[in-house]
Each structure stands twice: as structure tokens, then as C-alpha cells.
Specification:
The protein has 269 residues and is of the alpha+beta class. The chain has two domains: 142 residues, Fructose-1,6-Bisphosphatase, subunit A, domain 1 (Fructose-1,6-Bisphosphatase, Chain A, domain 1); 114 residues, D-Maltodextrin-Binding Protein, domain 2 (3-Layer(aba) Sandwich), CATH 3.40.190.80. The protein is built from eight helices and 14 strands. It has a seven-stranded mixed sheet, sandwiched between helices. It has a five-stranded mixed sheet with strand order 11-10-12-14-13, sandwiched between helices. It has a two-stranded antiparallel ribbon with strand order 1-2. Helix 6 runs parallel beside helix 7. The mean pLDDT is 95. Bound molecules: adenosine-2'-monophosphate and calcium ion. The site of calcium ion has 6 residues, from strand 4. Calcium ion (CA) binds next to strand 4.
């Protein structure tokens, strides 16, 4: 992607992300219409749909040759990541949005021919924007994020996990995850994959692992984590495929290999 065009695209996407966030903040206490999708805990609200519609309408008008991969149905059915693709989760952490009115994010990744060029994760209620362009570093608002420390060891790490490994252990023996949880210094669950990626990029969490995420949960995060020297693979160290769901491990590289070799590979089913 031409760098001048990428700069313009970054600025335009950033304006839309901030505008969408401001709209959500202004309406945060409005009555919500809440529906469920795959199961009774898989929530969607009119705010999710309206926010995605806002992005879709703007992108289609301004960049008619771009594609959209998104959660709430306004995007394209893509079979490849050719061309420029916006990968959008209008609200990541919908359960937090509904129950807590905070701890959710707008997540927008822009990929060109499969390569992540731009990422935005906007913590809407905190008004904190994580952003990155490939090879140009990652930022938290206007401050550049430092490279992750290579001095980390697993015993002094904080690992983000959600609880699905307890309920649905199709992929890995839960005993091995129990060992991992006992080995690390602490575990956390924030309930927004995007914000968990942002925490890894910032170095306030050393890894985030989960068994089943959609492309829009992780596309922006991958770009941002890459720029602080982190790595994202599936939970067994294999490449992510952004056209399907994946298990995910995004991590400080100092501990990534150990988590994969000593735990995930051993517990793999
Ligand atoms: P969402 O809020 O956009 O649905 C919560 O642990 C994280 O997992 C959130 O990022 C949430 O995204 C995502 N998530 C929740 N249910 C999911 C599902 N059925 N499949 C994939 N990701 C899901
Ligand atoms: Ca969502």
C-alpha cells in the first residue's frame, strides 16, 4: 500500500472511530434494545448495529473499492483478503457495554492483500485510542508505546484468559491450562479481546489466550501488538487465518515459546 495513501486512510479511519465513540458516549444511558445471537449470553444491541452501519455507509461512499469484514452483518462475505479490507467490530465487549457501560472498545483493522497496515482499538468510555501503522510503531493516544521487555519470564507474567477453556475443552486438556494458571503470577479476564490485545501491546499484560475468536475481535490488535514487538499466533503457535475463527495467543515473545512448548503442545487434543 502506497504510504501517502495509507496516511490519509489512517487519518480518515481515526476520525470515524473517534466520531463513532463520541456518539456511543452521548447515548450511553439511552434505553437499549438487547437481542441474543448464537446463545443467551451472545448479546447484540442497536448500538452495535448502528455503529457498524455508520462505518459501512462511510466506507462504501468514500472507498467504494474497499471490502468490509464485520460482526453485525453489514459487511461482505469474503473468501479472500485480496485488496483493502476493513475488519471491524463496532463494539468489542458487548456484555461489558450492556452490564458495565465501560470496558468495551471499537476495533478497526485495515489490511491490504492480507497484510495488516493499520489498527485502532478505542476504549470508548476512557477515551483512550490505541493505534498503529505497520512498521511505524504503536501509540496510546499521542504517546508511543515502548517495545516489550525481553526480560520477562513466565513466573512474573500476567496472562489474560477467558473461562471457555473450562467449559469447552475440545482443543486442550484443561489440566494443562490449570498448570499454566498456577505457573504465571496472575491471570485476568477483561471481557474485550481488543482491550486485552491493547494491554499486551502496552506491556501491562504479558499474554492473552483464548480458544475461539472471530477475525474482527483480533484484526486491529494483531497490528498494534506487532508494533511493540509482540507476536500473535493461534494457541499452538500456528499462523492465524483471518477468514475464520481461531484460537489465539498474543504474547510477549519472551514467554510465548515457553507457553506453547511447555503447556499448549503438551495439552493439545
Ligand atoms: P464481542 O463482545 O464482540 O462479542 C469476551 O471474552 C470476548 O470474546 C469479546 O471480545 C467478545 O466479543 C468475544 N466473544 C464473545 N462471544 C463470542 C463468540 N461466540 N465467538 C467469538 N468471540 C466471542
Ligand atoms: Ca462485537
Amino acid at each position: 500500500m502506497n504510504l501517502t495513501f495509507r496516511d490519509e486512510l489512517f487519518q480518515q479511519a481515526k476520525d470515524w472511530v473517534l466520531e463513532a465513540g463520541e456518539t456511543i458516549r452521548n447515548k450511553i444511558y439511552d434505553p437499549l434494545t438487547i437481542s441474543t445471537k448464537a446463545d443467551r449470553n451472545d448479546l447484540v444491541t442497536t448500538m452495535d448495529r448502528n455503529t457498524e452501519y455508520f462505518f459501512m455507509a462511510n466506507i462504501r461512499k468514500t472507498y467504494p473499492d474497499h471490502f468490509i469484514l464485520s460482526e453485525e452483518g453489514y459487511g461482505d462475505a469474503l473468501e479472500a483478503l485480496d485488496g483493502t479490507v476493513w475488519i471491524i467490530d463496532p463494539i468489542d465487549g458487548t456484555m461489558n457495554f450492556v452490564h458495565q457501560k465501560r470496558n468495551f472498545a471499537i476495533s478497526v483493522g485495515i489490511y491490504h492483500d492480507g497484510i495488516g497496515e493499520i489498527g485502532f482499538i478505542y476504549d470508548v468510555m476512557a477515551d483512550v485510542l490505541y493505534s498503529a501503522k505497520r512498521d511505524e510503531g504503536a501509540y496510546k493516544n499521542h504517546t508511543v508505546l515502548p517495545q516489550l521487555s525481553m526480560q520477562k519470564n513466565i513466573y512474573e507474567s500476567i496472562l489474560g484468559l477467558n473461562h471457555f477453556w473450562l467449559c469447552d475443552n475440545r482443543l486442550v486438556d484443561e489440566k494443562v491450562i490449570q498448570d499454566l494458571v498456577k505457573t504465571v503470577r496472575g491471570s485476568r479476564t477483561y471481557g474485550s479481546a481488543a482491550l486485552e490485545f491493547a494491554s499486551v501491546a502496552e506491556g501491562i499484560m504479558d499474554g492473552y489466550m483464548t480458544m475461539d475468536l472471530a477475525p474482527w475481535d483480533i484484526a486491529a490488535g494483531i497490528v498494534i501488538v506487532n508494533e511493540t514487538g509482540g507476536r500473535t499466533t493461534n494457541a499452538f503457535g500456528e499462523p492465524i487465518n483471518l477468514l475464520q475463527k481461531n484460537s489465539v495467543l498474543t504474547c510477549n515473545p519472551a514467554v510465548q515459546e515457553k507457553i506453547i512448548n511447555d503447556y499448549m503442545e503438551k495439552g493439545r487434543k
